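Why predict the complex rather than its parts? Because the way molecules touch one another can change local conformation, and only a joint prediction can capture that. The input here totals 1205 residues.
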Amino acid sequence: MLRALAITALVLMPPVEEWRVAVPDYAWSFPRDHWAHDGYRTEWWYFTGHLEGGGRRFGYQFTFFRIGIVSEPIELALDSDWASSHVIMGHAAVTDLESGQHVFSEVLYREMPLLASFDHDSEERIGWSRGPAGTKALWTLDFTGDGFRIAARDDRLEMGFELTTRAAKPRIFQGPGGFSRKGKESGAASQYYSYTRLETSGELTMGGERFEVVGESWMDKEFSSSQLEPQQVGWDWFSLQLDDGRELMLYIMRREDGTTDYAKGTVVSPDGEARYLELEDFSFEATRYWVSPSTGARYPVAWRVRVPSEGLELEVRALVDDQENKSRFFGGVYYWEGAVTISVTGLGGEALGRGFVELTGYGEGNRPPV
Amino acid sequence: MIRYFFRALRAQLHGGLSLFALSLFGVSIGVAAVVSIQIINLNALSAFSGSMRAVSGGADVTIVGKMPSLSEDTYPRVLATPGVEAAWPLFRLDVVAEDLDFYLEVIGVDFFTPIDLPWEGASVDLSAALGEPGWVAVTPTLAREKGWELGDRLEVSVGTRKAELVIGAFSDFQKATPLASTRLAVMDIAQAQSLFGARGQLHQIDVKIFEDVDQGDVIAELERSLGTQVLVLTPEQREQQASDLLSAFRLNLTALSFISLFVGGFLVFSSTQASLVRRRTEFGLLRSLGATHRQVMGLLVGDVLLLGLLGVAVGMPLGYLAAEANVDRVSATVTNLYLLDAINQLEVPAWFFLLAAAVGLFSAGLGALMPALELGRKDTRALLAAFSLHERVGARAPRAFLLGVGLMFLGGILYWLVGDRWRPAGFIQAFLLIAAVPLVTPLLVQGATGLLRVRSFGLAYGMKGLGKQLQTTSVAIAALAVAVSMVVGVTTMVASFRETLAIWIEATVQADVYVSTPAWRRSRRRAVLDASVIEVLARHPAVEQVDRLRQFFAYTNGRRFSFAGVDARAPGEKTRFALLEGEMLGAELGGIMVGEPLARKEHLSVGDDLVIDGPKGPVALPIKGIYYDYSSELGSAFTHLETMAKHFGDGPVNSVALYLEQGVDSEHVVDELKTSLADVPLTIRSNRRIREQALLVFDQTFAITRLLRYMSLLIAVTGVALTLIVLARERSAELALYRALGATRLQIFRVFLGKGLGMALIGIVLGSLAGVVFAFILIYVVNRAFFGWTIFVHWPIGLLVQQSLVILGASVLASLYPARVASRVPATELRREDL
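Output of the joint prediction:
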């Protein structure tokens, strides 16, 4: 019942006017902007990547969400450590790309000294939370100066990782000045930047087995107070790392009937220059679908992506079909977040890169909560 | 034969409706007594269980603190324990709604944990729940009852602290668990801690364990990692705790209700006996016409079965009504004395009806057993011939008497062997006594009536006849005696207890004015007095001395007891406690005084240590004295405030006692203090008021026993009427002979009145004697074993005499109708064979 409450409540949060909204001329200040921005309703730190170790290949995801519940801080108004204007939600997933096993874990805590917190004063720690119930280890996110350190663990699922990332290419803004529009309404936008290539190394546990791993990650940081426009049901989001040194970020906001309501993209050149794409600059179509046996949602798992201005015509394919994340805390909420491989049409499927795709709002009545 | 049964039944009902109605009445009241008490007992716990399930429904294990507070630091440790699937903290507090004089059970929850709450309506605004000061969700039932609507404000208090709540939503706990308390109120944990000044404190952590994990392992790990400061309990253990808390109270009520049923059983005996007597010729004829012994027995068993079933059918709704009429009193006891949830509504599960039916039928069957066996032994000739059982009972009377005395002797030996150390002993003794009464009755009736000198055909003649009709009369007299013994025993016990309590209160309540808070009754240690309030009280010109009291529940050897810190060196304290053993605490710190119930239950004496679970491990305090204590059957102990602070940390005071200057009118001071502290939620009472209220609570607690006593009596008096009707029928030939010999109707009327009077007198005398023994068993064995306190015997002579006169009067009234029936027997009823 609470699960229902939480979702409803999030929908019913104070009107957008009470929160800060994304603006085109946001004055960025790094490294401070790596830390939390309390005045905005939602914020996330999103890490996805491909790792190898011990002869095995893995895909992984680590996300910290900050969700504002009350726009006016209530911490000072109440004499209790539980007084909190935010909750922290953490999602962590590992996919064994050999066996196809996908494991998802999550945490949800209100921000309070005993359970979870986003630090504002620390030089390193951006945020932390307790692990899921039954796990002693904390989930943490640190800034190391040239990258990030992330740790997540779920003892019950015998899954976890401690990874250190280092920026192999400079940070880029998604959208001019880091202002990323998500719809036609003026408030429908976020402040958005990415590290499109992060050299990654560390330790990963899967099925109770530990692996020393190395690989590459992609990090997105986004904060805003907007939500989906009424006609929008979810989004398809691509982060693709090509072997020639280019990266491609594409997203479309979908309508109920599956058509595109809004779309944007970014191409990053091998030397780190970002070029922004509009709806007419690219296209993609699903070529294969997979139906989740547990939720019944029908997800596309292979696409043909075209970016004519870059001379790209790509086949993007899920490395494992079942990379669906189902939230326990958010009752019926589920989404697909998975590792993909890239090849060029007509070249016999030779790999030309890899990436991650996020698919939300698939399935009956399923809407992303943030 | 079945067709015959129904035809015969119709004939029987036609001929003896009053007899049948009386038997039915007796059985119904007996069943009603048991049913009403069992319904109340069941629901006294159901309210607790319902609320528990409503709040902690999804939890496999609940963690509660044994110390004055459960620190919220415990929560992350619980959360991190392997095997824990989810854990959620609860802040629980009973708060008093000031203007309304009732309490709300506030539950502070973390809305971001997977706790299931039954929200009413499509959505709840979480930002309001978190951000709007005082936001609370109440049950729609309570809102309807109080006329509250969303947005209404409510002033509440706990201790001297006040808070304003705003009704922000409805949570319908009753929908899922109908018996849950309607007073449950949910709010955000941060708001609850902040509003009620309890930063950092929790009261409960509910834990869900993974299904495929061994629950025992997780519990063991939680116990190991959290230490002795917490209790890790399964829902069953929590229910057991509540059940243990109420067990003595419930068991005693159950025992009393079964006495009613037992007395009802006598009635079945009488009526079956009557039926047998009346139908002997019929049965004889049936046998000689070829009916088997089993078929005839079947007719009799059918009668009893019908009586039992009808008794159950009438008794159950009657019992429900009786339960409903008394539920408020019992609910008050359950909430005031045991601090459990109020009984909001009575629920009777289906299995209960089966149980009640079984109990009713069993007692009816038991009552009919002897007469049926009697029938079994008769051959056809004997059935057709005139016979009388009375002579045989008369012949057996001495043997029965000896057996009865033997049973009582056995009870005595049991007392000598185990005293009050073995709980069931008291009930076995009471049972032996009740079983002995019917056995000694025939000989005593013979003896008593033998002493009578009969001068005329009237009252005395009727009484004398009782000794000759023992089979019928001794059963009714025994039933009456058992009922009287219960009335006398329980009345004496209650009166003795009340008197003991009154004297104890007189001695204990020595200060002139007592100050606590409205929330004190339920919230105990959390209902604290602000220091500034104590200062104001102390500054009043008439106040000479202020005694402070700090109290919380502590644990010794797994037993929860009420632990108090007092200004033990204050002059008033010296004489305040009536000592059973040892001496009062002196100036020297470190000792402890233990109340009698706790000392008895834990087998403690002066010189022993009371080992209490403390925040840093066990605290052993030497026992200086043991005092009489009737404040709580849980047991209590007190020490110096300083000693308490040393081992359990500093804490606020819960109540104070004010000693006034000589000659000052305490009521006047109470009024002045109430005026000067009008804004503070306080309960300020003079010692006179406090004494009155203590006795009021006592009377409320025992009110239910009064109902049981009177139910038994009603059955017994019905028994007298029934017996006389039986006699009038059975002896119709004899009565006809009297009439033929010239006796007037008035004379026969008086003979029967004499019989009624005689039965009542013998029943009362015998019952009173047994009642005295019963009172001793209740006072010296049952109360000590179950509650652990000493009751000083006090005979409520006036009340007992008054009750006896009422029984006598009721018996005489009950004799009027049978006497009238007897007096109308015409001489023509005389048959040749009867001569």
